[in-house]
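Project standup — Tuesday

K.O.: blocked on the structure for the chain from last sprint. Re-posting the sequence here as requested.
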Amino acid sequence: MIEKLKIATSEDEAYFYSASIEKDTERGCIGHVRGDFGKDGEAFWATWFEHISSLKTPDFREELGAVIQALTEQGLLQNRSGMHDFCIKHPEARLPSARHSDVYGFCLQTAKHRYYLRCFPRAGDYNFYLYCFTRPERIIELSSPLHSPSSAPLKQKSELER
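H.V.: unblocked you, prediction finished:
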């Protein structure tokens, strides 16, 4: 289900931040999760920010839960020290255009979605942002006439209804 977590490339950097509604639509941005580990670094606080509500399907919601669970099991979202340790082991994941030198980027894909995780393992700030996108081929598929509510065949009126 979930492919291997990868180090982000410079081409991926735009996917770690919010964009205009036009860019979100073009890229298929479903939304993002913003979270932190609290004052002691052991809590887990997360908030969902919706970008394109029509892309937030029940399948996506279920998959997002599985992705967060997998990232927790890998240590990235377990707590702040686990995130810090993971990031330190992957210095090549530093995002060069970030405001701080200790911001890291990782990405992963599933059959239907792409996820971009921006990590900032410091106290006193949000520790992660997980941006969620529909894969490009799915954007085309979801925008086809077969998925459009206006393309449903019109019911013909019977003689009595006319």
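K.O.: great, moving the ticket to review. Strands lie at 6-7, 29-36, 45-50, 104-109, 113-119, 128-134. The chain has one domain: 6-126.
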